[in-house]
Amino acid sequence: MPSFAEALALMEAWTESESLRRHMRAVEVAMRAYARRYGEDEELWAMAGVLHDMDYEKYPQEHPYRGVEELRRLGYPEEVLEAILGHASYTGVPRRTLMAKALFAVDELTGLITAAVYVRPDRSILGLELSSLKKKFKDKAFAKGVNREEIRMGAEDLGLSLDEHMALVLEAMRKEAELLGLK
């Protein structure tokens, strides 16, 4: 099985956009936090996070199928491939594993958190409070591209309240603020 370092290098080779790279790193960070919470393999879950959108820039019409095809060729575990396929609702791939449910749950939420940080005067996640994030979540005009229903469904599929889910991902991203360019 490929290592996390190889997964990261692959993502970077396939993705030029710095903002898309940061998004995938944010999802990786959130996936690591969920892996720790559930006592799962952190590196494996991190790979699903860092690779989930690797083909989006090159093959937007074939995402996530093209990326999964390459990952399968390179010997990535089926559990990772299934989670990546399941993170996009339109694939119709059911989210059966905890990994797949977590990937779906964190994908849109990391985008909302990042957008909330970018409108802060200091552009830092360190001072972003859960209460502010919840206000941004409720404001339909803010970050209109973020699918709030998928965030709700993701939390529910994990058996968490929306507040618990938001707090866990916010804290995970806060701890890696420098890596994510959100300090």
UniProtKB/TrEMBL annotation:
SUPFAM superfamilies: HD-domain/PDEase-like. It holds the Pfam family HD. Residues 16-121 form the HD/PDEase domain. It comes from the Bacteria. The keyword Cell membrane does not apply. One of its GO terms (molecular function) is hydrolase activity. This is HAD family hydrolase. The lineage of its organism: Bacteria, Thermotogati, Deinococcota, Deinococci, Thermales.
